Amino acid sequence: MSLSAQASNGRLEGEAVRLIDIPVPRRRTGIFDRLQKGATGRDSRLLAEALEQAAATYYGEAGKVFIKKLVQDVGNNHDGLTDRLAGSIDRFLAKSGVDSEDPYEVRFAKRFALAYAAGLLAIEYGVVPWSREIVYRSIGRVYYKTRSRTIRPVDPVQAAVKRVIRRVRAANVVDLTAGGGQVNARRARRARVLLITHTDGLPLRAVRPDYFRSLVGPLVSSIKVAEELETRKLLIPRGNGGRRTRQIPIPESDQRQDRYCLRLPDPQTSSPKSKAKNAAHGRSPAPVG
Q1: Distance between CA 73 and CA 81 in Å, rounded?
Q2: What is the pLDDT of residues 154-194, one digit of tens each?
Q3: Contact 4, 21 (CB under 8 A)
Q4: Total number of domains in the chain
Q5: Helix (H) or strand (E) segment spanning residue 175
Q6: What is the pLDDT of residues 39-56, one digit of tens each?
Q7: Distance of CA 150 to the CA centre of its chain
Q8: Are 213 and 204 in contact (CB under 8 A)?
Q9: What is the pTM of this model?
């Protein structure tokens, strides 16, 4: 039974973040979600027993190697190690769409982010044969499932939407609003985010689909995130309907490129004064298909 279920008057947020309930899936195979099709509870029990036996036989071996290399790392480059760990934690928080302005959300997620950082160190030290992606997918999945059952549930789609908005706002853009061949075709095709002008005169950030999917992350459907952005009127779909990407003309070529076009109001680019300045410089709208 979880701590939340045992608490007759509910749990305080501070307690919930110090002692976190990890939910166990309610399926026949329990915590094992990658067994063969048709697996039963008996299969789950046999696997758990085999893991217990292996743990009893090899207990501590990987840990000894990890601790030895960690101690060496601390002695050789303490500041560098600290920076690497902090960077890994920040990447987990950003990739998981954690609201950096909410102290509780950050504190809760950092428990999982630290495990993620340790997993990456284990890979770096050659202790485990994992990939960085599987470490994030595994820990990120547990984080989302756990967070959804705590005092303030988090919607993974909404979290991904916030992450996309934040990262696209902060991204370096290749500006196509000036026109006149100032950007060559190769640079425009490779750019993660293009700044273009819609036919209504307002700016759009045209995001390359593969970059959009990387911002969404592997735990959420990018289709659902694009759908939510369109519902919020932040994503401008193709004019003829049916698709959420628009075709953007590539300078100095006859090519067009499908991109997600986001309208993220920015006082510096959407104010009347700024639009008047753009008009004075002869900037004209770029057709977006």
Answers
A1: 7
A2: 678 888 898 899 899 989 999 998 764 578 889 999 999 99
A3: yes
A4: 2
A5: strand 174-175
A6: 888 888 999 999 999 999
A7: 20
A8: no
A9: 0.56
Query: Which of these three, 108, 123, 154, is where a domain ends?
Result: 154
Q: What is the DSSP string of 15-84?
A: HHHHS---PPP-STTTT--SSPTT--HHHHHHHHHHHHHHHHHHTTHHHHHHHHHHHHHHHHHHHHHHHH
CA dihedral of 184, 187, 188, 189, whole degrees rounded to 10: 120
% of the chain beyond a pLDDT of 70: 82
Given a cut of 80, is residue 237 above it in pLDDT? yes
Which of 164, 145, 148 is closest to 33 using CA atoms?
145
Q: Are residues 9 and 122 in the same domain?
A: yes
**Pair of tokens at residue 206:** 């045209």
Q: Are residues 107 and 187 in the same domain?
A: no
In whole angstroms, what is the distance from residue 69 CA to residue 127 CA? 10
Range of the domain at 207: 162-280
Q: Are residues 113 and 67 in the same domain?
A: yes
**Which of helix, strand or coil describes residue 178?**
coil
